[in-house]
Design a protein that fits this description.
This protein is an alpha/beta fold. The protein has 11 helices and 12 strands. Helix content is 48%, strand content 16%. It has a 4-stranded mixed β-sheet with strand order 1-5-7-8. Strands 4-3-2-6 form a 4-stranded mixed β-sheet. The two termini are 20 Å apart.
Length: 340
């Protein structure tokens, strides 16, 4: 297998403008060149805030199948640029048929929830080894019990209930995993739209950026990211992208959030408090998180179905291919990513 991990270009500087120059992307701001990079080195371009991208560059990216995603300055997804509809129509039909079959859909969703619970449990167990284990024992036991109940669920709502119970117990342990800057990074529960504390601000930002990566991975294999399994289908919601994200939340994104806090890379002055008591990353904080997220994607890990290690950034693409194989009937059950 040839490993290839193309970088994502994040445009975060206020007033920055990216344009196409031959086969290169030139980023300028107030007449100054900030960056020039060959287009073929980029797998995606994400535009945050009031940065901008030229129409010729968008058209070229759409033609090449390169993802262009637009976010507001707080990391909330706003739009994607799509080219012509491509891919195998038979795969998408198989996906629609599978998502409309209640039995196949439930089997698929069980694997997604089981993967999330197992990975969340691993994060809790790792935290228990690194600190006083008592705060985590009950949640670890709860996750083990929930895992035993997953295969016996009869409906998607029942399965979603188990996933919700696991998430509640997991985040109840989150304060104990914050070992530094406890006063500045207090965490009571998971909240969003808008986040009410610094920890939730980082989690929401990472989840939004990673969702776009999952959507790109699904589109890359020809699946429709809007047609989900576990997450309900709603207009404009990348339901299958959110399904794919579930197995990576705890082991990749939550752990990155905790690392940035515990190593004091993120500081209180990397956040702004807005009207309504919402807390959001400022420009410096967003850039720091994005740089560290890109670094994390380069780390190589072992995949159970491969003989060699792969970068974390390729995991969504590998799992998207496995999803496609399940919809085609080539695999009996979806194997979520479970780290060694």
């Amino acid at each position: 297998m040839t490993k290839q991990l193309l970088n994502t270009l994040y445009l975060t500087t206020e007033g920055a403008h990216a344009r196409l120059e031959n086969d290169n992307v030139r980023v300028e701001c107030e007449g100054e060149t900030l960056l020039k990079v060959p287009l073929h080195h980029l797998g995606a371009i994400h535009v945050l805030g009031i940065a901008s991208i030229s129409t010729p560059l968008m058209m070229r990216c759409a033609e090449d199948g390169r993802a262009v995603a637009l976010f507001d300055r707080n990391g909330h997804f706003r739009a994607r640029v799509h080219g012509k509809t491509t891919g195998n129509i038979l795969l998408r039909k198989a996906q629609y048929d599978g998502c409309c079959d209640p039995f196949r859909c439930l089997d698929f969703a069980r694997q997604i929830v089981a993967g999330k619970l197992q990975n969340s449990r691993q994060v809790l167990m790792r935290a228990a080894r690194e600190s006083v284990p008592e705060p985590f024992a009950d949640s670890i036991a709860e996750h083990e019990g929930l895992l035993g109940m997953v295969q016996g669920t009869k409906t998607l709502d029942e399965l979603r209930g188990l996933e919700g119970m696991g998430a509640k117990g997991y985040f109840a342990c989150f304060p104990a995993m914050i070992r530094a800057q406890k006063t500045a990074f207090q965490f009571k529960d998971r909240n969003r739209r808008p986040p009410r504390d610094r920890v939730n601000a980082v989690l929401s930002f990472l989840y939004s950026i990673a969702t776009s990566d999952c959507v790109s991975a699904l589109e890359g294999v020809g699946l429709d990211p809007q047609m989900g399994i576990l997450h309900a289908v709603r207009p404009g919601r990348p339901a299958l992208g959110l399904d794919l994200l579930e197995e990576f939340r705890s082991i990749v994104l939550d752990r990155l959030c905790l690392t940035l806090i515990n190593r004091r890379q993120l500081q209180p002055d990397h956040f702004d408090v807005r009207p309504g008591d919402s807390v959001l990353l400022n420009d410096i904080g967003r850039k720091l998180v994005l740089i560290e997220y890109q670094k994390r994607k380069q780390i190589e890990v072992r995949h159970a179905l491969l003989e060699s290690k792969v970068p974390i950034g390729l995991l969504p693409h590998l799992q998207a291919r496995l999803m496609a194989r399940v919809f085609r009937g080539e695999l009996h059950a979806y194997p979520p990513y479970l780290p060694d």
